[in-house]
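Example record used in the benchmark description.
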Amino acid sequence: MTMKKKVGQVTPEEKNEIQQLFERRNGLNELAKILNADNTELYEKLVKDMGETGTKFQGWWDRMAQKYQWESAENGNWEINFETNEIYLVA
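Model output (structure tokens):
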């Protein structure tokens, strides 16, 4: 059974930062589905961008978790509600 518990909230500016990264990551993932490795230059650029975006995405969660001291759980992860800026622990 999945548990979802509110553990915090971020500022609108912080939410905007993760929302941009979230949308960029999703866009890159969609692009990766249709792009083949034949176009080496574009493919390499995509892989690099996906890596950088993933690192920034994870970095945001690490920074915010440290700043706000969110509750965590083994095998759990945090989610953000983009409308309310609320952070939930899903475990």
